[in-house]
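Q: Start with the shorter request: fold the first protein.
A: Done. Sequence, then structure:
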Amino acid sequence: MRKTLIVFLALALVCACGAAVCTHAVAAPREDVTFDEHVFAGDPAAAAGLQVQLQAALRQNLFWDSTMRFSGRDYTADTAFRFSPVAVSREQPRQYSGVEVDTRVNVWTGSDTNPFGYGRAYQEILDTLEPGQTGTKVIRVADYYDEYPLWFSVDLPNLFITTLDSWDDHDAYATDAERDAMHALRDFFRIPVLPDEYVELQIDKDMDGSSSSYGVSSVQQGDRYWPSSECVVTESACYFRLSNRTANGKLVDMSRIPGGYGVYMLPYGPLAPDSEASAFYGGNENEVYTDRLACFFPVDPETRIEHLALTPDKTRLLLHTVENNIYYVTLIDCKTGEVLQKLAVSDFEPEDDYVNITETEDFVCIQQTQGRICVLTQDADGLYQIALRSDYLPDDLYSPVYATVRAMAFDGKRLAIVNNDETVLANDDNRTKSYLAGTTEALITLDGAYFDNCGFTLTVFDQTGVAYSGAYVSSLESANYLTGGTLNMDHLVLPYSIALSWKNDAA
C-alpha cells in the first residue's frame, strides 16, 4: 500500500507539469513492465547467461529500470519504478574532438587575399546586379584558389582554438599564441585544389548597392573533396588523420604536407608561465606546440584508412586500414611510432564500402558491410588476436548494430548486440508500419515521426554465424500509443540507456 501511495503521489506531482504528461504517465505501467518476445531467427537458448539492463524515462522525472535475464529458452524481467521531483540529467563524460579540419569557402570578404571566401567571385556577381536583385554563378574552385583554404578547430583539455569565418576578426580577438597556431596549421596542411571541383555562388544586392546575404552550394558537376578528420587525444598529444580521397574515390595530392599522407601528431601542454595567455588565464590553460606538428606515422596514399583509435590504456594507437583487399589492424607505440603488431583481420571486398567499429575496454568489434563480424581481444602482452570471426547474411538480420541506444558484450565465444528499435509511425492505420514482426500495438501515432521505443532487438553471434536474432517489445509503449492527437518529446516514454553482460556460470 505504501509503495502504491508513493507512485500515486509521484504521478500526481507530474500532473502539475501538464495534463498531457500526466495522462501518459498514468497509462504507463509502474513496476509490472512486460516484454513480448518475437523470434526472428535461431534459438533463444543461444542467449543463455545474458543479462540486459534497460532504463526508460518520461521527461527526466519518471524512470523505469528493467533487468532481463536469459536462461535456456526462457527469460525473466524485473522493473523498478522511481520518481524524481527534480529533473535528473544524464552526465556525459567530456569528449574532446581534437583537431577538426574542413574547407571554408562559403564566406565572402572584400579582400581577394583573405584566406576565406570568394571575394573576387562574389564581387563579379554583385557588379552585374541591380539593387534588390539576386544573382548566382557556377565557378571552378581552382580559378580562385591554388590550395584549399582550410578551417581548423582545436578542442583539447583546457584548450580551445578555432578559425573564425573572417580571419581579420579572428586576428582582432585572438591571442598571439592562437594566431600563431592557426597560421602554423594552415601552412602545414597545404592541399592543391582539384581541377574539376565546382560550386555555385549566390548573393543578394541591397538597395544601397551592398550585399545583404550570400552563400555557396555544391553542384552535380565534376568532383569534390572534404578533408574530414578523425582524432584521438592522450594527455600530451592529439593524433589525427585526414581523408585523402575525393567524393568519386580519387586520390588527393598530399605531397605538399611535410611527411605526406598518414597519421599526424600535434603535441600540447601547459602555457609558458611568462606568456600573454598564461597571465590572462591565470596559468590554468594549455597551448599547442605547433613547432612539433608532424606526420607521426606515414601511410602509403593507396592505403585506405578506415579508423584511428587508442588502446584502453592510451599508450598505443590502433590504425584500421585496407590494403590490397585485406583488412588490417596495426598497433603503434604512441611515443616512438614503432609498429608493435600488424594483424590481418579478414578479406575486404570492394562491396564493403564501410565498416562499423565498436570499442570497449575488453574487445574491439568490426562489422563489414557484406556480412562479416570480427571480435579482437588483447592477450597478456597487450597484442591483439582474433577471438571471433563470424559470417552471416545481412538480409537475414533485423537491424543488428545500428541504433541510438546500443550495447555489446562478449564472453569469449559469443557476441551479443542489443539495440533499441526505431519504429516508423503514421496516423493513418493503413500506412502505420512497425519493424517488430508486423505488430502495431506499440506505436506512437505521429505523422512522419521516428521515435526510439523502450524495447530492444537482440542478436547473438557465434562461430557459425547468427545463433539467435529476436526483438522484445516493452509494455511501456502503451503509454505512447494514441489514436489521434499531438505529442512532443516531453510526452513520451523513451529509452534512456541500455547495458548488457554475460554471466558465464549460466552459459
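Q: Next, the second protein, separately.
A: Sequence, then structure:
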Amino acid sequence: MLKSIKILFVALTALCAVSCLDKVPQSAIPQQQAMQTFDDAEQTVTGIYSLLKSSALYSGYLTILPDLQTDLVYAVDGYSNTYGNFWLWTVRSTTSEIESVYASLYQIIANCNFYLDYVPRVVAATTDENKLTDLNTYTGEVYAIRALAYSELLKCYCKAYKPETAQTELGVVLRTTTLDKQPLPRASLYDSYQQVIKDLERAEELLDEDNDAHSSAFVTRAMALALHARVALYMEDWQSAIEYSTELIESRNFALSSAVSYYTSNMTYFDYMWNYDVGTEIIWRIGFTTTSYGGALGQSFLGFNVDYTYYYPDYVPAQWVLGLYSDRDMRYSSYFYTLPTGYNHGLQWPLLVKYFGNQDFINNALIYHTVMPKPFRLAEQYLIRAEALCRQQTPNFSAASKDINTLRASRIVSGGGINLTADNYIEQIAAERVRELYMEGFRLHDFKRWGELYRDGEGFTRTPQSNSLVEGSSLSVKADDPLFVWPIPIHEIEAPGSLVQPNESN
C-alpha cells in the first residue's frame, strides 16, 4: 500500500505540468484502494511534510522573492541574474518562479485533501487507542497545513483584504476534496479567507496544546494560533489578531531569544537560533537534515560555494536598511558582516549572513547557505499585536509601545525604547518589521496591505548605491502597482476547461 501512496504522489506532481488545480490522478490507483491503514495515513502525512521542504516555498522563492522585489536589497553589478525578473519588476505570468510557488502550494493542498478524504475510513478501521490519538493529531496537522498553503496563495496572488470589498474581490480556487473533478472558478476573497479560518479552527480543536514546544518541526496548536494571528491581521480583524498573538506571547512554551544575553562566550541566544536553527522563540520550523533539505536561502546573498574562497553575492542590503539599526542593536551583527568578495570591481559591503548556513550542516557535510526556515517566530507575534493595538477602533498606543519595546529590549543593549503615537505608529512599526524580519518574506505584502496608510501610498524608490546594477537601481513603484499582486500562471488560465480568472498583473 505504501508503494501505491508513493505512486499517487508522483501522479499528482506530474499533473501540475497541465494544471495545478486538477489533482485527481487519472492512472494511479483506484480510489477504493487508497489510504486504508494507519501506516498509509502516516506515510501520507510524512509526504505532506516533505513537500514543505520545496525550494519554491520557505527555503527559497516564497521567502526571498517578496522582499527582493521591494527596496530591501540591491542587485550587484556582475550578478548572475538570479531572480532578475523580480528585481527589475518584469514578472510575467510565464515567470518560472511564479508558476513554481503556485504549483507547490496547490500540490500541498491536493495531498492534504487526499488525506482528509480518506482518513475517516482509516479511523473506522482502527481500534488501537494510541493510533486513534495519533490520527486525531495528524488530522489537525493537515488542516493547519492546508490553511497555511491557502493563506500563502492569498498573500501572493490576491489583492489585500479589505472588509468592505472582500466579497467582490477575487480570491483563490478552493479545492477541498480530490473526489470532485469539476473545474472551479476563483472564490471571492471573503470566502477564501473564511476557508482558511475554518481550517484553522478545526486544527485548533484537534491539536493538543500539551504538544506545543519551541523549535518544533511538526505542526502544533501553537503554529495554528500563530497563523491565525497573522491571517487576522491581514483581514484587519484587530481583536482576533490581539487574541491569538496574546495567547502565544503569554505561553510558557515560548520566549524571545535574547540578542543581549550569551549562550556561549561569543554567541548570543539570538545568534544561536540563526546558526543552529534552535531557539525558544521558534514556534515552527521546517525540519531539514543533511540528507533531506530544500533550497539554500543564503546562496543569493553570499555565494561562497562558487569557489570556497571569496563571496559572490547577487544581492546586498540596501544602505537605508543598514542605517535603521543603532550601534547598540545586536541584530545588526547577527544579520550583516563585511566579507571579501571575488568581484573585479572589489565590492566591499556588509553582506547578509543571516542565512550563512546551519553550522552542523557545514561542519558535518559542507552544506553551505542552508538553514531550516522559520515561518513563525514569537517576535512576529509581538509585531502583530502592536500593530493591531494601534489600528483597533480605540487605539492603545501605550500597550503597543510596550510590545515593541519588549521586543527591542531583547535585541538592543541598554535601552532603545520608542513611543508609538497616532502620528508615527505605522512608520515605527514598519521600520521595526524591517529590522526584525529582514528578508523573511514580508515586505511586499506589507506594502500591499497598508496601501495609502504607509508613506501616503507612495510605495518605494530605489537610489543607486555602491557597485549596484544600473538597471533597476533607480526605480519608483507606487503601492497600488498591479505587480504587488503576482499574476496567475498562464497555464492555469489557458488549461482546457479552465474557469480561473486572471489578475490585473496578467
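Q: Describe the second briefly.
A: The two ends are 42 Å apart (CA to CA). Residues 1-17, 24-28 have pLDDT under 50 and may be disordered.
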